[in-house]
Amino acid sequence: MLKTVLVLACCVGILALPLVFDGPYFLQTMILIVFFAYMSCSWNILGGLAGQVSLGHSAFAGIGAYTSTLAFMYLGLSPWFGMIAGGLIAGLFALGIGCACFRLKGTYFTLSTIAFGAVLRIFVLANNSICGLQTRGAQGLIVPLKGNMPSVMQFAGKTPYYYLIVVMTGMVILLTIFIRNSKVGYLLSAIKANQDAAASLGVNVVAYKQLANFTSAFLTALGGTFYAQFILYIDPNRIFGLDFALEFVLIAIIGGQSATLGPVLGAFILVPISDVVRAVLGGTYPGLHVALYGAAMMAIIMFMPQGLIKPLGHLGGLFAKQRKATSTT
Amino acid sequence: MLCEDPRSNRSTVLELAELVDVTIKAHFAHWKKRLGAAAAIATLKFRRQVMLSQLAQPMISGILMGGVYGFIAFGLSLIFGIMRIVNFAHGEFLMIGMYLSVIFWSIFHIDPFISVFVIGLIMFGCGYGFQRIFINPILRREKQREPISILLFTAGLMLFLQNIALLIMGGDPMSISSSYSSLMINVKNLVISVPRLIVFALSVVFSGVLYAFISRSDTGRAMRAVSQDRQAAKLMGINEYQMFALAMAIGLAIVGVAGTMLSTFFYVYPTIGAVFTLRSFVIVVLGGIGSIPGALLGGVIVGVVESVSAQFMPSAYAEVMIFIIFIFILLVKPAGLFGLERE
Amino acid sequence: MGDMMRVENLTKAFGGVLAVKDVSLSLNDGEILGLIGPNGAGKTTLFSMIAGFHKPTSGEVFFKREKITGISPNNACKAGIARTFQIVKPFGDLSALENVMIGALCRTNSVTVARKRAHEVLDFVGLATKSDQVAHKLTICDRKRLEMARALGTGPQLILLDEVMAGLNPTESAEVAELVKRIRDEMGISLLVIEHVMSVIMYLSDRICVLDHGELIATGTPSEIVQNEKVIKSYLGVRRSSAQNRSN
Question: Least packed by Cβ within 10 Å: which of A167, C165, C183, C200?
Fold first, then answer.
C-alpha cells in the first residue's frame, strides 16, 4: 500500500536525518520544529479532539519545567522522574481548572484559560520562592550544568536531544491515532460537535472532557521539561506567557486541528519560516515573524479552515477512520 | 505627616503641642509614661486620617479611569452580545485610535478633542468594512457551530496589528503634550488631572448617547432583537448581517474615540492594547453582556479595584486581583451583574 | 398502570413562570402515548425533565418503577430513556453511521460492535444507502430519520419523540409515522410523542394527554380526546359548521 510505504519512508528519513546533516544550526532548528510539533500535538488532544480551545497551555509547560528543575536542584531527583512528577502536577491543575470551567460554554472556557494562565505567570514572576524552594522570581531558573550525563537528561551535542524529542512526538502521534480510533475518540468528536446531543446519547461529557484535559496537560508538561533541559534556562515570562501558548494553538490550527498530523505539518512550515524571518529580517523589522503568524492564522481561517493538511486528505489522518463522504468546506 | 484637611491638621498640631507641653512640664518619671501615651494617641489619630485620604485619591482616579474602561468595554459587549464573537483585537483597535490621534497631532497639529470626531468616523467605516469583508463570510459559513474560529481569527489579528504597529511606529512610547496635559485641579484634599476628568465626562456622555440610541431607535431595537434571538429577528425581516456590521462599526468607533481621548494622558506604544482588551473582557463578564449600565458599573469597579489595590500591594498583584474577580464571576454568576440568564 | 414511566405532580418554574404545573401521567410498557397542546404548553419542558435536561422544581419521575428524578441526561440514556430534539442536533461533521455509533457506544466499548449495530439501525430506519454521508448534507427528512436512528442506537426502552414531523410534507410524514409504529411493533419500545399534526397523533397513539398552560387538562383514548370540550376550546378549535351557523 502506498500509504504504508510513505509512512515508513518518512520515519526512516526523520530518524536518519542527523546522520546526513549534522550542522549544529540545522539540528537546532530541527529540534525546535519537532518540539513545537510535539507541543501542538499535545494541545490538540484537548483542542482538536475534544474541541475545547485552551489559550493557557503554556502554564502546563511552565509547571513541567519548574517542577522537574526544582526537583533536580533541591531534591536531587533526575529530570527523567521529575518530568513525570511535573506531568502529574500539571494534570491535577488542569483537572481543577476543568472542574471549575468546563460547565462554561466554549468561549467562556477559553477566556478562563487565559485568566488562569496569567495568574500563574504573575504568581511565579512576583515570588522568589515556591513552596519554600528558591526560584529567583522573574530572573528565571538556570538548570545546573552537568555536561554529558544522560541519567539527568543532559547530553553532549544536539543529536541525542533530537532523538528524544522525535521519540516523544512519535508517541503523542501514536496516542492520538489510538484515541481517534477508539470509543474515546468517537465520543470526544461527538462532544466537540454538540454537547447536549452527546449527553442525550449517554455520553458523560464532563468525564470525557477531563480525560482529554488531563492527558493534554500531562503531555504538555513533559514537553516543558524537555525545553528546560535543552535550553538549560527557564525564562518564566516566556514559558508561562500568552505568546508561547498562542504559538501552540496557531501551529495546530494552521496545520489542521482535525487531522492527527495537522499540528506536525503546521510546525514544519511555520517554525522554519519564523526562524528565517527572525534571523534575516529581525534586526530591521522586529516582530515581523509574529505578524506573519497572525496573518497566516487569519488567512487559514478565512480560506482554508481545515488547515494546510486538507489537500493531503487521508494522509493527514494516517490510520484514522476512513470517511468516504465528501468533507466540509 | 500633615494632610490636606485643615481641620485635621489643626488637631494634629494641637496634639503635637500637647506632647511638647507634656515633655516640658512633666517630671522625669511621669515624663516617660505620659509621653508614651500621648505619642500613641497622636499616632493612632494620624494613621486614621492618613488612611482615609489614602483611599480617597485612588478611588477618585479609579472612578475616572473606570468610566473610560466601561465605555471601551461597552464596545466589546455590543460585539459579543450581538454576534457572540470574542474580539481579541479590541484593544489593538484602541491602539490604532491612539496612534491616529498622535499622528494627527504631530503632523497636522490637530488637538485630540477635535480629531476625535474624525477618527471616530474613520474607525466606524473600518469596523463596517472589517465586518463585511472578513467576519461575515466566516459567520455565514459557520452557521451552526460556535464561532471559535472567529475567536482564533481575532487572536491572529491581534498579533498582526501589534507587530505591524511595532514595525511602522517603532517601539518607543509616544505621547501628546498639549497645553492642558498636566493641568490639575484641587478639590478638597484631592488632586484631579483635568484631561482625565474631561475624558471621563465625555465617556459618560457618549455612553449615554449610545444607550439612548440602542434603547429608543428602531435600529437599536433591531440590534437588540438580533442579540436575543437571531432566527426570530430574521423572520421579522431584519438583516442580521447588516446588524452585525453596524455593531462592529459602532464597537470600533467607540474604541477609536476612546483611544483618541486616552492619548491625551496615556503613553502610546504597540502593546498598550492588550491591557485594555483584558480589562474589557473582565468588565463585560462582570457587568453582563450587552448591558450599558453593567459595562459602566463594571468599569468603575475594575478601575477602583485596580487603583486601590496598587496602594496596598505590588502592582503585579493588582493585576492578579482583576483576574481573580474575573474567575470568580465566571464561576459564580457568568451572566454578570446585569446580564440576562441565557441558555 | 405506569409500569414503564410515570410522573407525579411534576412542576417546573423558570423564575416566576410556571412552565409545567403539577402534571401527573403514566405510560405503560409497549404503549404509544401522544402529548398534544398549544405551543408553550410545557410539552418540551416535560420531556426535558423526564430525560434529565432540567431538574423539576417539585414532583417525581419514575422509570420502570424506579425514581429517577433529577437524573443527569447521560444517566437517563443509560437507564433506557432516549430522546430526540425538536430542532434536530446531528453531529454535523460526522457521517450518518458515525452519528448512530455514538449512541451505540453507550452500550459497548467496542467500536466494531457499535459499527455493526449502527448499520443495523440505519437499515431499520431506511438510511442504509446514506450511511457514509456527512450529516449536515442530509435532507431534513433524512435528518429526522437520523435523529431517530441515533436514539434507537442507544438500545432504549422508552423514546421521547419531540415534534418529529415538523417540517415534513405529508408523504414524508406518513413514512415517518410508519417508522414510529414499527419501532413499537417490532422492537417493543414504548414511545411518548409530542406532535401537532393531528392525523399522525390520532393514528399512532394508544392514549393521548393534553397539556395547556403547563397543566394536564385531559387524558384518554384518541376518540375521547377529540370529543372533549376543554380540549376543543383550548386547542382543537370549534367546528366550522357552528361558526357558519353564527354568521347566517
Answer: A167
> Which pLDDT score, from 0 to 100, does residue A11 have?
85
- Tell the residue number behind the cell numbers 438583516, with chain if given: B239
Residue A134, beta-bridge partner list: A129
Q: Tell me the pairing of strands C58-63 and C66-67.
A: antiparallel
> CB A302 to CB B134 under 8 A?
yes
Cα–Cα dist B31/B28, whole Å: 5
Across the interface, which of A183, A197, A321 has its CB nearest the CB of C91?
Answer: A197
**Cell numbers found for residue C57:** 422544581
Query: Which cell is A18 given?
Result: 542527523
Cβ–Cβ gap B317/A288 under 8 Å: no
Sign of the Cα torsion C182, C188, C194, C198 reads: positive
Q: Which three cell numbers mark B287?
A: 457587568
DSSP type of residue A154: B
Within a domain: A50: yes
Is the torsion defined by CA of B280, B286, B287, B289 positive or negative?
positive
Q: How many domains does chain C have?
A: 1
In angstroms, the Cα distances linking C192 to A292, B44, C187, C238 are 57, 75, 15, 27
CA torsion through residues B207, B213, B219, B222, sign: positive
H-assigned helices in chain B: 6-25, 28-83, 90-108, 112-130, 136-141, 148-169, 194-216, 218-228, 230-235, 240-262, 272-287, 292-312, 315-332
- Whether residue A318 lies inside any domain: the answer is no
Please check whether residue B290 is in contact with residue B81, taking contact to mean a CB–CB distance below 8 angstroms: yes
Tell me whether residue C83 is in a domain: yes
Evaluate whether residue A252 is within a structural domain.
Answer: no
Nearest CA in chain A to C85: A197
Q: Looking at the complex, does the CB of residue C92 fall below 8 Å from at least one CB of chain B?
A: yes
Contacts of A203 in chain C (CB under 8 A): 74, 102, 106
The pLDDT mean for chain A works out to 87
Using a cut of 0.95, tell me whether the model's pTM lies above it: no
Q: Which residues of B touch A250 (CB under 8 A)?
A: 156
Preferred mutation among A200, A257, A314 to probe C, highest tally of C CBs within 10 A: A200
Q: What is the pLDDT of residues C66-86, one digit of tens each?
A: 999 989 999 999 999 999 998
Number of domains in chain A: 1
CB contact under 8 A, B327 and A122: no
Report domain extents, chain B: 65-272
- Taking the alpha carbons at both ends of chain B, their separation in whole angstroms is 56
CATH code, domain carrying A162 = 1.10.3470
Does any domain span residue A141?
yes
Contact C136 B145 (CB under 8 A): no
Among B12, B78, B61, residue whose Cα is nearest residue B191:
B61
Instruction: List the subunits that have 3+ CB pairs under 8 angstroms with C.
Output: A, B
Please check whether residue A246 is in contact with residue B155, taking contact to mean a CB–CB distance below 8 angstroms: yes
Residue B133 has pLDDT above 80, yes or no: yes
The range of the structural domain enclosing residue A32 comes to 2-247
State how far the Cα of B47 lies from the Cα of B192, in Å rounded to an integer: 23
Chains in contact with A, where contact means 3 or more Cβ–Cβ distances below 8 Å, are B, C
Residues A86 and A65 sit within 8 Å (Cβ to Cβ): yes
Among A202-211, A277-286, C91-100, C119-128, which stretch is predicted with the lowest mean pLDDT? A277-286
Residue of C nearest to B142 (CA): C92
A302 strand-pairing partners: none
Q: What is the predicted ipTM?
A: 0.86
- Using a pLDDT cut of 90, give the percent of chain B over it: 19
**Residue C170, helix vs strand vs coil:** helix
CB contact at 8 A, B86 and A107: yes
**What is the extent of the structural domain holding C171?**
5-87+157-247
A vs C: CB pairs below 8 A: 97
Q: What is the pLDDT of residue A325?
A: 35
C151 within domain boundaries: no
Cβ neighbours, 10 Å, residue C79 = 17
